[in-house]
Amino acid sequence: MKVYKFGGASVKDAAGVENVRRIVAAQTDKLVIVVSAMGKTTNALEAVVDAHWEHHTDEAIERLSAIRQFHQNIAAELGLPKDESDTSAADLVYGLALPDNYDEWYDAIVCLGELLSSRILSAYLAHNGVPNVWLSMPQLLITDHTYREAKVNMDESRKRIRKAIMDNPARVFVVQGFIGGTIEGYRTTLGREGSDYTAALIANFLDSDSVTIWKDVPGILNADPRIVDNTILIPELSYHEAVELAYSGAQVIHPKSIRPVENKKIPLYVKPFNDPTAPGSVICETLKKVEVPVYIWRKNQMLITMRAKDFSFILEDSLSHIFDIIKRHRLKVSLIQSSAVTISVCVDKSRYVDKAITELNNAYSVTYNDDLSLLTIRGTTPEIICQEEKGRVILLKQTTRRTARLVIKNK
Ligand code: ASP
Ligand code: MG
């Protein structure tokens, strides 16, 4: 039993879907295929949600039709009969009746990306020699009601997913990444780029032999090839190293996807979808150390500094209060620095930040800087740090013997 995950870039058009068929057809094991939304569909659906939220209903409907058209065009190019690849009208209007809650609305609408891509892929495989069963994750991956960042109910999901897949003699299954549902049937999402996490969870639930994440890069590289020219492939790395890289902001894999595979010691491969026989990288139980410096950029950062108003010691008196607020507003902390009376946190910029700052302001003097990036360099040297600091405005720097973290003002 294997799990394959294909991201948005691998199914961005008809040629991509055919490429997936080729990769899948070469496989003879029982196989679960986890697929993301096609290309930039999730971003496009986010724009639908925003338009709806701003009461620009015409614009929302127009954007939704464009998304539907985009999928219909791909399905047509793949030669699929319309009724097999199209999402039903019920899917498209699902959510309109929901209460006025942004996050709930978001999940109801944004789910469509994966529902559409998985239907198209499943239908195309079925028509081209790969019989398969399409499964609906909102009914199988059961979560709580934390819309946009739903927490998975492991026991219930394991039970349902095992029953749907292990008790079914079919060999190939096509499922959606990123989306789930509550026990009452409301749709939820696991957080952006969450399809890797879905793949890892399914592998864990089914005791899969491996997970392969098919990507538009040769494997796990020591830097982002969109930023750096001469990147180096890291052939093998430990779960621990992988989680550190992912948490620092390496885009190659979602940070949450390491734990479910680590728990069962399932190897996770990252392979290029345009060169399926290339070795790629493997995350597994290994003592091998990464030999090259690794550069990880985490974009869209804000640095928030809280100062106690009354000279109380911030770490002793206020830390849990501050982090309670941060957690409640769902801020993602990427770095922490403290002194006697101040604490600074670097967070991902999100739509929740303003409210969190307002609440923090009630108890502390808060200042912040916007428009920042966090560069983490693992396996660094003093020379590398000097080099990276050159010509940049560094707001904060943390170094240990092997790791440097620089909070950099964007140019
Ligand atoms: N389609 C979702 C996103 O773009 C999930 C994923 O790609 O993993 O965030
Ligand atoms: Mg994606």
Write up what this structure looks like.
A hairpin with a 3-residue loop joins strand 16 (394-399) and strand 17. The protein has 15 helices and 17 strands. Helix 2 (41-53) runs antiparallel to helix 3 and helix 2 (41-53) runs antiparallel to helix 6. The longest helix is centred in the first third of the chain and has 21 residues, at 57-77. Helices cover 39% and strands 24% of the residues. It has helices spanning 14-25, 41-53, 57-77, 82-85, 89-93, 102-110, 112-127, 137-140, 154-166, 195-206, 239-248, 258-263, 314-328, 353-363, 382-389, and strands at residues 2-6, 31-35, 133-134, 142-143, 172-176, 179-182, 187-189, 210-215, 236-238, 268-272, 281-284, 294-308, 333-338, 342-348, 364-378, 394-399, 403-409. It is globular. The strands form three sheets. It has an eight-stranded mixed beta sheet, with helices on both faces. A six-stranded antiparallel beta sheet has the order 13-14-12-15-17-16. The chain binds aspartic acid (ASP) and magnesium ion. Aspartic acid binds at residues 7-8, 36-37, 42, 113, 177-178, 192-195.
